[in-house]
Design a protein that fits this description.
The chain is α+β, with helices and mostly antiparallel strands. Helices cover 62% and strands 11% of the residues. Helix 6 (155-221) runs antiparallel to helix 9 (297-318).
């Protein structure tokens, strides 16, 4: 019978190791090849993502605002605390690889039944000369105890590597928050400048409308115009005044948005509207797509997360194998405080090694392994997704910038022509060679084209900012 038991034990151990060898801890997915270049005419000699964001702008006010945001933004502060948490995770896993040593003091009392091996032996044993072991036996201990899991197959080592990868991914996550913060503040700033310009355009147009309205009123008194013309100009002026209020409301909202990004309560944002047309940067160059893997903080974050899941899967596989734990202790132990520190009589020590391996019920370990494997596959897909997203973002922004350059050229010419048209219509109207409707029409078209030009300029600035971010710039 004993021989059969040992055969069964040996067969179980062999089956355990054979089953563990069949576990696949290197899953693969189909990878999409990254194109060698972007489909654009952009310069590719050097990637502009390497340019520090302070060198990108030519606006000291904007640089000061962004510096304030980097110091106080709430989301960034949260990201930095997550970084600290992951750093503590590395320290924890390093500690798990070392023996745990504890100072222990304990006291208690035990009573063994008389009809037990211990009880029967104690009533016939002298604990000191002439004194039988008492039925109620005190037990006191002062010393050190330790427990140490020997990392035979690298489970703890892989868990430490996973923690380090998580820490590195947190660094990249914080970098990506910085990148987005710089971009968000700059975009909101240019939105605000564009609104200032639009308000100025509408205000000047309203002034022209008032002058025209006064002329119409005089002509009405002289019998050269009628009440309908007066009402048309009055309605147009009221429309401009309502537009002014809408723009002021948008300015209020964007100022509050910037203050929120800066982590402070609402206050005035210092700015100059002319900065919208400053040449803030040279033509940005996209470089080659492969550089996205080094420059984009979000891609590097996904890469570190993927590495972490690989180490977690390796650690989960190691859980199927035998586990060696050594426990030990040394100190003084006695039944009476008077004898507690007598050496060597009260000196006590122990050392035990336990080698254990799951044989029958391994469902929990198998579930943990399957969970780790699925997490790794998800991380692989997320990594591929981040690369695909980055490439498409760059491509879209390059195309947008190219289109907006052409649009700005056309819009600038349109604005110049319509401005001349307004002056011409007013002069012709004074001499009765143009109707008031032609004046209204030319003024409205001129204002609309100027507003569209501002929007186009703003979109161009924002597209350049988005390209810079999509290339991976802004966190350096």
């Amino acid at each position: 019978m004993n021989l059969n038991f040992y055969k069964f034990l040996l067969l179980s151990i062999i089956s355990l190791f054979f089953a563990c060898k069949t576990l696949n801890n290197q899953p693969v997915i189909k990878k999409a090849e990254l194109p060698k270049s972007f489909n654009s005419n952009a310069v590719t000699s050097e990637n502009s993502a390497k340019l520090n964001w302070k060198k990108l702008f030519n606006d000291s006010l904007l640089i000061s605002i962004i510096d304030t945001g980097l110091a106080n933004n709430i989301d960034l502060q949260i990201a930095l605390q997550r970084l600290q948490i992951s750093k503590y995770g590395v320290k924890f896993q390093r500690g798990e690889m070392l023996p745990k040593v504890m100072f222990n003091t304990s006291g208690g009392i035990r009573k063994f039944g008389l009809y037990t091996m211990d009880g029967a032996g104690n009533i016939a044993t002298e604990i000191t000369p002439g004194q039988i072991v008492p039925i109620d036996l005190p037990d006191m201990f002062v010393g050190f105890q330790s427990i140490w899991e020997i990392d035979i197959l690298g489970k703890l080592k892989n868990q430490k590597k996973s923690a380090i990868s998580n820490y590195l991914s947190s660094i990249e996550g914080a970098n990506w928050v910085v990148c987005n913060l710089v971009n968000d503040i700059a975009i909101s700033y240019y939105e605000l400048l564009a609104l200032d310009y639009e308000l100025d355009i509408i205000t000047k147009n309203s002034d022209n409308q008032r002058e025209a309205l006064e002329i119409i009123k005089v002509q009405k008194e002289a019998g050269k115009s009628n009440e309908l013309a007066v009402k048309q100009f009055s309605a147009q002026l009221l429309n401009n005044q309502s537009l002014e209020q809408e723009i002021k409301q948008e300015i209020f909202k964007y100022e509050n948005k910037i203050n929120f990004l800066l982590g402070r309560f609402p206050q005035k944002i210092n700015r100059k509207k002319d900065d919208l047309f400053l040449k803030t940067y040279e033509n940005l160059s996209s470089g080659v797509p492969s550089e996205l893997l080094q420059n984009r903080a979000d891609i590097r974050e996904m890469e570190k997360i993927l590495a972490s899941t690989k180490f977690n899967l390796a650690a989960a596989k190691a859980s199927f194998y035998p586990n060696l734990i050594i426990t030990s202790g040394i100190g003084f132990q006695a039944f009476n405080p008077a004898f507690l520190f007598l050496s060597p009589a009260s000196l006590a020590y122990n050392a035990i090694g336990n080698l254990t391996a799951p044989l029958i019920n391994r469902n929990a370990i198998a579930a943990n392994f399957g969970n780790a494997k699925s997490n790794q596959i998800i991380a692989m897909y997320n990594y591929q997704k981040s690369i695909l997203n980055a490439y498409i973002e760059v491509l879209n922004h390059l195309n947008t910038i190219e289109s907006l350059q052409k649009i700005n050229t056309f819009k600038t010419e349109e604005v110049d022509i319509l401005k001349d048209g307004v002056l011409t219509s007013v002069e012709l109207f004074k001499y009765g060679r143009a109707t008031y409707l032609e004046v209204l029409f030319s003024q409205k078209n001129s204002m609309q084209s100027q507003l569209e030009l501002i929007q186009s300029k703003k979109r161009q600035q924002i597209s350049m900012l988005n390209l810079y971010k999509s290339l991976g710039g802004g966190w350096q």
